[in-house]
Write a structure and sequence with these properties.
The chain folds into two domains: 253 residues, TIM Barrel; 95 residues, Immunoglobulin-like, CATH 2.60.40. Helix content is 23%, strand content 29%. The protein contains nine helices and 19 strands. The chain has a 15-stranded mixed beta sheet that branches. It has a four-stranded antiparallel beta sheet with strand order 12-13-17-15. The protein is elongated and about 85 Å long. The termini are far apart. The structure holds zinc ion (ZN) (2 copies). One zinc ion binds next to loops.
């Protein structure tokens, strides 16, 4: 009798299973996944976080562990430059210290993990409005930014170091009592002089449509960050791998997807300066059309096209086509039908869960079905404007 090793069988099954279900197996996995797009790698980042070196509540290594758990490619710990409430217990005159601790830990950790993490030296220039709080990342030396009596000097120094500079939480009610992001003369000056390059449209638990409008009108890079002070798991209700899940949209931190030529600090920086980002926040994807459209086109794949077998079709000439739309990403999609066809299985609004396959029965009335066009209602490209995509059925 031939003996088959059960482990071998399991491996074969897993291999097949993996191919069937794409990058992720058909179960919940905490690490976030989005596919690469044409010519660019999709890198997952969070460039606004805190540790005990300013007013955060964890040691920098915890931020690294969280990022690895979330499957991120790059992070920055951006301590408040001018605000150190724990300086009695943790005196740290060196503003680069959180970066150094995180980077040393990551260099050791990267030897034992598949997806390497990149740590980028950053700082949050913490001023009253205007200009409010400003992040500067890709710094050589954060100490040189400290100019307590001059808001402009720190930003100028960051630019001298060729940092990528973005405006944090421009709609923060502590600094904008009506919750509306708007530009002051100071910001206009910064944009005019090319000293400010991006703006958070998502910060922690909040989205600002007005900030998105500012980004688009002033060609600023669209950013979304966690601005985490406590624990990612607690604030964003992230479930763990081994927890049985019945939720369609598991909690996750806001991330900025950066479309970079390759996975390196230089490429990430180039992509940020070129505005190639999309923010993933709750169930929303927010980005400039030229970035969001190619991403969604890679997330949704047409899997299988079959004529519907209808037992009750008396003449045997059904013109209904069954189409499988497979979502290989961690974002859900809400699609609005823009086709002349109606569906047998859905209304005009179709919800597709993350990492799932949705079968659509299209009533073609015998017409050629080449493309399916949808408006993506959770894909925001401007205030009250949603991206349109075309899925090729050919
Ligand atoms: Zn802040
Ligand atoms: Zn912050």
């Amino acid at each position: 009798m031939i003996k088959i090793n059960p482990t071998f069988l399991l491996c074969v099954f897993l291999l097949f299973n993996n191919q069937l279900y794409g990058q992720k197996q058909n179960k919940y996995e905490r690490k976030l996944f989005f596919p690469d797009i044409e010519n660019y790698k999709t890198l997952l980042t969070d460039f606004h976080q805190h540790t005990v070196f300013s007013d955060g509540l964890v040691w920098p290594t915890i931020r690294v562990d969280e990022a690895v758990r979330d499957g991120l490619d790059a992070i920055s710990l951006t301590e408040h430059l001018e605000y150190q409430p724990f300086s009695k217990d943790i005196p740290n005159p060196d503003r680069n210290r959180a970066y150094i601790v995180a980077n040393d830990f990551t260099e050791r950790l990267n030897k034992s993990i598949d997806k390497k993490l990149i740590i980028i030296n950053g700082q949050e220039i913490t001023r009253s409005m205007p200009p409010g709080h400003i992040n500067a990342i890709f710094l050589d030396d954060a100490n040189k930014l400290l100019h307590p009596n001059d808001s402009l000097k720190g930003i100028q120094e960051a630019n001298k170091q060729n940092a990528f500079v973005f405006w944090n939480h421009p709609a923060w009610p502590a600094q904008r009592s009506d919750g509306i992001a708007r530009l002051d003369e100071f910001h206009k000056y910064l944009i005019d002089k090319n000293l400010l390059h991006g703006i958070e449209v998502v910060n922690e638990l909040y989205f600002s449509e007005e900030a998105l409008d500012i980004a688009l009108k002033n060609n600023l890079t669209i950013m979304g960050t966690s601005d985490i002070h406590g624990l990612i798991d607690w604030l964003f209700k992230v479930p763990n791998d081994d927890e049985a899940l019945n939720t369609n949209s598991p909690g996750h931190r806001p991330i900025t997807m950066v479309f970079a030529k390759n996975k390196s600090k230089e490429s990430i920086k180039e992509a940020l300066f070129s505005g190639r980002t999309v923010v993933f926040y709750n169930e929303l994807l927010i980005g400039k059309e030229e970035n969001l459209k190619p991403l969604i086109q890679k997330c949704l794949l047409i899997n299988n096209i079959n004529d519907l077998e209808l037992g009750y079709s008396e003449d045997g000439k059904s013109t209904i086509k069954k189409i499988e739309i497979k979502n290989i990403s961690d974002a859900p999609f809400i699609l609005k039908n823009l086709n002349p066809f109606t569906f047998e299985t859905n209304s005009d609004i179709i919800s597709i869960n993350p990492n799932s396959t949705h079968t659509l029965a299209v009533k073609t009335k015998g017409e050629d079905l080449k493309n399916l066009e949808f408006e993506v209602l959770n894909g925001i490209i401007a205030p009250k404007e949603y991206v349109k995509i075309i899925l090729s059925v050919d």
